[in-house]
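Is this the right way to post structure tokens for a design question? Let me know if I should format differently. Anyway, here goes:
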């Protein structure tokens, strides 16, 4: 019987002893790794320190000043192994996965840590629908979750919030204001969207894929019309996975990332852009493993694993 099942049967809420918790974590990681190996994914290992940061509008990279031959060189802790894995994928053209430590600035809450384990994988010749099917298989094995709801972002805004997801800033502002949201005339489209999206996350109680994100929130995803082939998975109001069909046009990727780099004053990895010339059609996904483990163990906060990972020192 799993620890979560025992916990539910006993009605217990205490955190397991560090030794027991470490054993559960080891078994959990083994199951995740076996899941992908049985599907003939190649496990890979890529650098944690990179010469360029990941460019993601909602993630803050952490710079590191490294001394090399007496000179200081600015490097970056990766916020995801995405850039390095895609570079490798463009050369090897094999399905691959990685379990990597990643680092993000300004992230510490009951479900956030500045350092955490990320599962990332890429499947050649498939799209985001394939990834969602695959995740359902993974969840069935780990959490005994059978069947995950799928709803588009526009449908979710309408069903849960009563908001028509408008593509123009002015229309979205008026729509949210008419529904009683505390919005300001100075809010841009992204601020308005995320103000509503935070409320939407709280409404998602059943395991749910929210699909077809607005194109402006999908820098690396394939775009069809006004939406992207992108999804996020939510379980009990917690974002667990983020995946999409990959855009493979170097020109399109450069246009999107250049805007992000300039707006934030960050360097742009031209090498990453160039590899899209040989990147095969594929789909990729990332998943926070501590969050998945948290759900498997039946907790609602990452605090319970601090006894083996020691993040309480950051408080």
């Amino acid at each position: 019987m799993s620890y979560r099942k025992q916990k539910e049967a006993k009605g217990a809420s205490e955190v397991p002893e560090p030794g027991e918790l470490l054993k559960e974590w080891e078994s959990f990681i083994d199951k995740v790794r076996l899941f992908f190996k049985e599907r003939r994914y190649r496990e890979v290992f890529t650098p944690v320190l990179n010469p360029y940061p990941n460019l993601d509008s909602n993630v803050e990279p952490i710079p590191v000043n490294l001394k090399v031959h007496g000179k200081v060189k600015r490097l970056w802790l990766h916020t995801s192994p995405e850039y390095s894995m895609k570079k490798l994928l463009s050369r090897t053209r094999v399905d691959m996965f990685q379990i990597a430590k990643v680092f993000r600035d300004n992230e510490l809450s009951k479900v956030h840590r500045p350092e955490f384990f990320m599962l990332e994988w890429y499947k050649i010749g498939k799209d985001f629908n394939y990834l969602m099917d695959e995740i359902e298989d993974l969840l069935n094995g780990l959490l005994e979750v059978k069947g995950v709801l799928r709803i588009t972002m526009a449908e979710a805004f309408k069903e849960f919030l009563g908001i028509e997801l408008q593509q123009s800033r002015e229309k979205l502002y008026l729509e949210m204001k008419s529904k009683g949201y505390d919005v300001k005339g100075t809010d841009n489209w992204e601020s308005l969207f995320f103000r509503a999206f935070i409320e939407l996350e709280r409404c998602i109680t059943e395991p749910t894929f929210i699909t077809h994100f607005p194109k402006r929130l999908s820098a690396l995803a394939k775009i069809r019309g006004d939406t992207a082939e992108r999804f996020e998975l939510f379980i009990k109001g917690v974002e667990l996975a983020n995946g999409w069909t990959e855009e493979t046009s170097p020109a399109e990727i450069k246009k999107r990332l250049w805007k992000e780099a300039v707006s934030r004053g960050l360097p742009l990895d031209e090498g990453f852009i160039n590899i899209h010339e040989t990147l095969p059609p594929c789909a990729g996904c990332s998943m926070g493993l501590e969050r998945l483990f948290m759900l498997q163990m039946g907790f609602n906060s990452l605090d319970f694993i601090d006894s083996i990972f020691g993040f309480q020192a950051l408080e």
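Format looks fine. Someone answered above. Worth noting: The chain has one domain: 3-148+207-310. The CA atoms of residues 206 and 233 lie 10 Å apart.
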